[in-house]
Amino acid sequence: MMKDVLNKKDFQVIKEGITYPQGIKAAGVKCGIRFNKKDLTLIYSEKVADAWGTFTTNKFKAAPLVVTEKNLSLSKGKLQAVLINSGIANACTGDKGLKDTWETVNYVSEGLKIKKEYVAVTSTGKIGEFLPLDKIKAGLEKAISCLDYAGGEKAAEAILTTDTKKKEIAVNFKLNGEEVRIGGMAKGSGMIHPDMATMLAFITSDISIKGELLQEALKQVVKKTFNMISVDGDTSTNDMVLFMANGLAGNKIVDKKDADYYKFLEALQYVAEYLAKCIVKDGEGATKMIEVEVKNALSFTEAKKVAKAVINSPLVKTAVFGRDPNWGRILAAVGYSGAEVMPDKVDLYLKEKIVENGQPLKISCQEIHKYLEYSDEIKIIVDLKIGKESATTWGCDLTYDYVKINTKYS
Prior knowledge:
Blueprint lengths: L4 E4 L3 E3 L9 E6 L10 E16 L7 H12 L3 E11 L5 H19 L6 E8 L6 H14 L5 H7 L8 E9 L2 E11 L10 E7 L5 H14 L4 E2 L9 E6 L13 H23 L7 E9 L2 H13 L1 H8 L6 H9 L10 E4 L1 E5 L2 E2 L4 H10 L2 E7 L5 E8 L3 H8 L3
Parallel strand pairs: 5-6, 9-11, 10-17, 12-16
Antiparallel strand pairs: 1-2, 2-7, 3-4, 4-5, 4-11, 7-8, 8-9, 12-17, 13-14, 13-16, 14-15
């Protein structure tokens, strides 16, 4: 099938998803957890892949994440299959939840005839309910029979909960003449907050890369993408970003931080940032994406504090929803962020510079209102003017529909 190329940099962006890399198959099927919707996804690599993941910081970590972390440790960073169910989170389920999770690992291991430690599992949905093992076992049998190189779209659909759309992307680039591919998919709409959220993201590649470098690259990318988004400030029990690289591209192994590594890192950063933005654009009830860029801070950590304070402020988020040019709410969030700030140096931009050195400029509130009214993506820039580091976060407005969705989730 001819690929639809969107744009060119050092890599090309392709209208594909998780199965775009060589040797990756996937399936998305209905197993009966969610009424008349696909709810079980299986990802399979024909070759054992180097793998790593990042996981929620919530103390009530769901059973599937505990099991997947354990398997990554046992396998020394190797995986071959990932099973994801939607509709039930299998969180706060105690010993039974862990036992059920290990049972699903056994199902995958036996069904695909692979080692148990090469299996990752995760769940998303309602907290406090147990997995229907009979449905998952039957659904897995169906998924195995449906595994396909073209199964990415169905797989991306089956991981959704309150999401309104699939979130997929793929890119390719050349390393020493060999084409290398990266594919990804994600889900997430509510309970989204930096340092992981009710979000799952899965990224595959056929690159040959040393496991330690894969881990380092994923940590660096997650830090500046998935951990920089927020919908509502709630950190969930089930968040996971998982990356598998099976080496089937045939490139010379990337074993040091050379030009090949940084080309790969740039492409991976693009994939992760794209998926992260897709999540906030699809935030529960959201009508607008908000991007907050903090410039000239003393450090990345300090810039992140300010950016997170602004993107998480209910007053800022509701002002954007109401198309209200109430910029004082933004500076208030900057002030309570806990970061080093010199108020008489801060500049603020909302479509244009509206505050300089902590003082308001003469602006047209009507023009700012129009910007908030007609733009789908709102950009806020905070220039601290005390250092050289920056950070960017992404979020969305807070609407009536967010409240409605979350009063009826159960």
